[in-house]
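[stage:ingest] chain + small molecule (S-adenosylmethionine)
[stage:ingest] validated
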Amino acid sequence: MKKSKKPVIDENGLCLNEYKNNYNNAKVYYERAIGKAPEMETSKAMARQLKKIIKQEDEILDVGCACGHFYRSIKKRVKKNFYYTGVDPYKIFLQKGKIAWKNNKNVKLIRGNIYNLPFRNNEFDISFCSNVFIHLNDIKKPLKEIMRVTKRKIILRTVLFDVSYKIQLVYNKKWWSDVDVSPINEFDDKGSPRAYSYFNILSFDYLTQNIKKIYPNAKIKIIKDDFYKKSNISKSLKNEKRPLATKILANEQVSGCILQPHYFVIIEKKK
Ligand SMILES: C[S@@+](CC[C@H](N)C(=O)[O-])C[C@H]1O[C@@H](n2cnc3c(N)ncnc32)[C@H](O)[C@@H]1O
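[stage:predict] done
[stage:export] tokens:
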């Protein structure tokens, strides 16, 4: 793939320089998928939540699956036969994921976007989506889509707080080699960043009221994700060498200088 460094923000507010050209992230996710790198603390915690609800022969969807590395954690803990579909818009992750899972008939990886999921209504028994909502400009359509394709339960993992914050992380080429923006040009004449990714924090009220608006009978349970081992997060930070990788400060997850209180939001679609 030819590497373009001109900043491209797509219609959903994603910085494509980060996703299309980020070989290091793809390598990290691939190594997690094949078991060469340790499981993420998040994928272990997600697998434990899923273990409580997966039934025999269930169809499971992972939205924003990257290389399908969560499948390894789920498979390890759930001793039932289930089918895993991962969906992600970016080839760089899917290509590697397809190599990682080529011999596993219960795994499918499909190209698609949470704003318009390529699936039928209620096609999946359970869907989950980890570390994706934080990067989305708008979450109303993604919520609608994930609830539309799911029959029983949806688990989202994202950053929540009492109030919402709309945060743009601004790239420059000094620390992010995939963009051509000099530090002096980070913002244009209107004060808007040229290359950025969202790292949004949603209020509990905004998220839950929007879920209820789409599906008034939904039952919502919110669980703080403090299931991680601090020492494992510190090891990944050291080994994976990713800028702004998660660290722990005062028992809270932190990226750069932003506190990231993560939660699992478990949505049950009740008739
Ligand atoms: C921070 S990574 C998280 C990967 C994995 N879910 C995890 O928790 O480790 C965000 C993932 O979401 C994907 N993604 C970004 N925008 C998306 C969209 N609009 N629809 C679906 N997936 C998206 C990215 O390609 C990437 O694989």
